[in-house]
Amino acid sequence: MNNIILLGLVSFINDASSKMIMPVLPLFIASIGGSGLAVGIIAGISDSLAALLKMFSGYWSDKYGKKKPFVLSGYGLSSVSKLMLAFSFSWWHVLLLRSSERIGKGIRSAPRDAILAGSTEEKNRGKSFGLHRAFDSGGSVLGSVMALMLLVVFSFSFEAIFLAAGVLSFFSLIPLLPVREVAGKAKKMSILVSLSSLSPRLRLFIITASVFSLANFSYMFFILRAQEFFSAGLSVSMPIALYTLYLVLYTVFAVPAGSLSDRIGREKVLMLGYALFALTALGFTMVSGIYFIVILFILYGIVYALVNATERAFVSDLAEKSSRGTALGTFHMATAISALPGAIIAGLLWDAIGSSATFLYGASLAVVACLMLSLVLLRK
User: Fold this and answer.
1) What is the per-residue pLDDT across 95-117, written as a single tens digit (0 to 9) for each?
2) Which of 49, 145, 232, 324 is most buried when burial is the number of CB atoms within 10 A of its CB?
3) C-alpha angle with apex 277: 276 to 279, nearest 5 degrees?
4) Domain range holding 97?
5) Average pLDDT of the chain?
6) At 225, which CATH number?
7) Is residue 225's pLDDT more than 50?
């Protein structure tokens, strides 16, 4: 449990830093001339480049029996990249630095999740991952509130907010130092042998989660859609406030959702989350007023509470202990690679047809993911 708390604190501080940037980022991209397609390219390419490292960092951590060095270097690279965002003046600069920050996430994610999984018993794994997600999203709430305060109360520029976020990010490395390695030792293994150890059911679920990742294009489009409902004076502050509301709901429901998956099964909780995302995305195609959009952001937060930690816990359950890092890395890589075409398609639809087409696309693919998840249930 000590590792879970320490890694939770790392994520709390790091995500406070990240979420000072994230709600502002799509607005900053638009302010420097980026289109809907530019937003899609930045969201998709940055996550997909990171995906190339996610599986391999998990595999390498299994191979060498050490996970903490990957976690430490990943958080360090992300901190440097966030700091440099303050000096961007083109959406191409944002693309490069956002990609670098996501590469840091790619290096750390699977080894960190493997430490989490190895630090708890299977019967409590959903709750433990949910607790870590609660720390993560709690920091996210704090970060988005800080961004809103700096922007509205203190009149900080976008660049000044990025600079403050970059400095804060380095403090997340402090609680990482006393984290203990989980039991493991270096072993000879090839990547093909390691991948072959993934069960057919696990492979089917990774494919299913990848389809949902295609549907779940990027939070940036939700913020841009919200901006359409507010006049010039509120067009920046209110979308950030709605994003904060989404994070609050995510934080409140993260641990209950994880505990629910321990009791009734991961698949049932994921089915509910995928279906609720389809309903939420469909709602964004029909939204006609401020009250309606508030409800949709509430649902969006509940969706992430149901899906985010539960997917990782489910992969950990289905994987062999000796290849858990590889399994989690494969999951992260597959879902992040899917985000690239998903985000680009969403951006093209946004520019060519309109925002409703983007959200209809997301709702349709989420329904497909629900149908595929039913096959995972049948193979139990």
Assistant:
1) 999 989 988 988 888 788 888 88
2) 324
3) 65
4) 2-180+193-378
5) 86
6) 1.20.1250.20
7) yes
